[in-house]
TrEMBL record:
<dbReference type="Pfam" id="PF05795">
    <property type="entry name" value="Plasmodium_Vir"/>
</dbReference>
<protein>
    <recommendedName>
        <fullName>CYIR protein</fullName>
    </recommendedName>
</protein>
<dbReference type="InterPro" id="IPR008780">
    <property type="entry name" value="Plasmodium_Vir"/>
</dbReference>
Length: 243
């Protein structure tokens, strides 16, 4: 799959492209210097975090920041830190904690706590060492599942494309409970239960790609026969006209 069409993909893409607009939140992240963090890349990640929360703070906090978006945001921040700090779990955990500390100074007002809590407690990922990416992939898949099923129903080709995509998630379900983020399970047990049923063993048969292929072939055959009949009728009418 090359296009960006799933909810998590769109969310992460928007965060990445917003890097081009950074610079206006440098002062908010200055506190990181006091925490002995002067890495320019870390500062950019910090600015991106502040920019997202500032941009979405007012409108989303009318009914609290969207839980799903906060979860994805936290995972994206973790991913950026792991990639930059070369999978050094201790440094990632410390920097992530510094970000949480920084937010307590940046945000004020009635919704301050909600904005700060949007950066989730993800200490579990640090203990997973190099397997943190599996936890992220699993959660992304759970968030995207409904849209996957919707898009897979559009055509046989799309169905087979997503069938292969879902099949690649099979290894994650062999260690589902270990990889599913505990903090996310605690806050939304319903999604956890739903996600457990998104197991490829259960999900792939529901796609019914072969039925879609048969229906598509029958539709194409019907259209072909219909066009042939139209051409025959036109030819017959033309012959009658010239007689």
């Amino acid at each position: 799959m090359s296009s960006i069409e799933l909810p998590s993909e769109i969310f992460y893409h928007n965060l990445k492209t917003s890097y081009n607009k950074l610079g206006q939140y440098i002062h908010e992240c200055d506190i990181l210097h006091l925490l002995k963090t002067d890495d320019s890349q870390i500062m950019s990640i910090c600015e991106n975090l502040v920019q997202y929360l500032k941009s979405n703070y007012a409108k989303e906090n009318e009914e609290h920041l969207n839980d799903q978006n906060c979860n994805l945001l936290s995972l994206w921040i973790y991913e950026q830190l792991f990639e930059h700090l070369e999978d050094s779990s201790n440094r990632v955990l410390i920097t992530y904690a510094n970000f949480q500390h920084m937010l307590s100074y940046v945000f004020t007002g009635d919704n301050k706590i909600q904005a700060i809590k949007c950066l989730r407690q993800l200490g579990q990922l640090g203990s997973l060492k190099n397997e943190w990416k599996k936890s992220k992939d699993l959660y992304d898949y759970c968030v995207d599942y409904d849209e996957i099923i919707k898009k897979a129903s559009s055509s046989y080709e799309k169905c087979k494309e997503y069938e292969e995509y879902i099949q690649k998630k099979s290894p994650l379900y062999k260690e589902f409970d270990r990889l599913y983020i505990q903090a996310y399970k605690s806050e939304n047990n319903d999604l956890y239960k739903k996600c457990k049923n998104y197991n490829p063993i259960i999900a792939i048969p529901k796609l019914e790609c072969d039925k879609k292929n048969l229906a598509q072939e029958m539709s194409n055959a019907f259209l072909h026969n219909f066009l042939v009949k139209i051409l025959i009728l036109q030819k017959h009418l033309a012959m009658c006209y010239w007689e």
